[in-house]
């Protein structure tokens, strides 16, 4: 089957095992209109289903990762339509159904919904001019795609309160120091290439273990330490039922490179 054509995305598989999605709505700084979000969910769903893809990279342009939800689209939205149609709920599909690791490579503006989308990544990488922020307060609203929850978990309550209540931006350097992102790169290209290289590395491992890693780390966001460690141990024990565990440990014992079966 030929790859679906997207209006607002560029989708490719540039390296073995790596799915790559670029937001491509340059004239609106990648503002996240509903058709873009629908396409993004389609592209992610396709990579999720594609056996040969082990990890996914999501990026924007060097000027903007995404400048937020589409303000022009939201301008005339009413409470009853927002509530009645569960406005923005479909965004959470991105995190709740995606089992493969998602790396977000952020250059330029990541504001409002753009910051929230960036934070849905399992790993965040930033370029030197990345700008994070939740400016919703300036529009008379609040973050609506998880910003108040994910930003607070990522950088702590006081910093998140300051960011969300003032609408002030967070620089790439600050985001690195606060641990909002895993790495800050020297150029936009290095940021995207770094994300692709990390995705390629992840995709080169046994995919059962990769999936389990993501699952247990995500549990730490929801469970207390005791339940979380118990959960981890159940999954850990389960991996001794996989072939990849036998393959990985036997290869180590004879100093060979493992040939994963993903079984
Ligand atoms: N929605 C719709 N259009 C947007 C947009 C957005 N979020 N952000 C930028 N654009 C459009 C602009 O309207 C402009 O279009 P026109 O050429 O047709 O006028 C085009 O993109 C270029 O933008 P600017 O001329 O403003 O570019 P700039 O370089 O001067 O400024 C900016 C860049 C600081 C990012 C500025 O565009 C800006 O402040 N954007 C809005 C940021 C924002 O408030 N985001 C939060 C949205 S609310 C939200 O996301 C809710 C939620 O939690 C889900």
TrEMBL record:
Pathway: Mycotoxin biosynthesis. GO terms for cellular component: mitochondrion. It is an enzyme of class 4 (lyase). Pfam families: ECH_1 (PF00378). Keywords: Fatty acid metabolism, Lipid metabolism, Lyase, Virulence. The keyword Lipid metabolism applies. Its EC number is 4.2.1.17. InterPro entries: ClpP/crotonase-like_dom_sf (IPR029045), Enoyl-CoA_hydra/iso (IPR001753), Enoyl-CoA_hydra_C (IPR014748). The keyword Lipid metabolism applies. GO terms for biological process: fatty acid beta-oxidation. SUPFAM superfamilies: ClpP/crotonase (SSF52096). It comes from the Eukaryota. One of its GO terms (molecular function) is enoyl-CoA hydratase activity. Belongs to the enoyl-CoA hydratase/isomerase family. This is Probable enoyl-CoA hydratase, mitochondrial. The lineage of its organism: Eukaryota, Fungi, Dikarya, Ascomycota, Pezizomycotina.
């Amino acid at each position: 089957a030929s790859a679906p054509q997207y209006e607002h995305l560029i989708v490719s598989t540039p390296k073995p095992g790596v799915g790559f999605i670029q937001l491509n709505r340059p004239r609106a700084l990648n503002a996240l209109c509903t058709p873009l979000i629908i396409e993004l969910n389609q592209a992610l769903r396709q990579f999720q289903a594609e056996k040969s893809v082990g990890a996914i990279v999501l990026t924007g342009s060097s000027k903007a990762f995404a400048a937020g939800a589409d303000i022009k689209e939201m301008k005339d939205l009413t409470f009853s339509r927002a509530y009645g149609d569960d406005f923005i709920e479909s965004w959470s599909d991105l995190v709740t159904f995606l089992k493969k690791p998602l790396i977000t490579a952020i250059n330029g503006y990541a504001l409002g919904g753009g910051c929230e989308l960036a934070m849905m990544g399992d790993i965040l990488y930033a370029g030197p001019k990345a700008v994070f922020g939740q400016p919703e307060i300036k529009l008379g609203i609040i973050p609506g795609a998880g910003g108040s929850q994910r930003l607070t978990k990522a950088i702590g309550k006081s910093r998140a309160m300051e960011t969300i209540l003032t609408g002030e931006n967070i620089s790439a350097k600050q985001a690195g120091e606060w641990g909002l992102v895993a790495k800050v790169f020297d150029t936009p290209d290095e940021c995207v290439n770094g994300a692709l290289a990390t995705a390629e590395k992840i995709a080169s491992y046994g995919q059962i273990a990769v999936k389990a890693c993501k699952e247990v780390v995500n549990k730490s966001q929801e469970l207390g330490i005791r339940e979380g460690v118990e959960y981890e141990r159940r999954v850990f024990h389960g991996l001794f039922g996989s072939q990849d565990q036998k393959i990985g440990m036997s290869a180590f014992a004879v100093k060979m490179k493992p040939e994963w079966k993903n079984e």
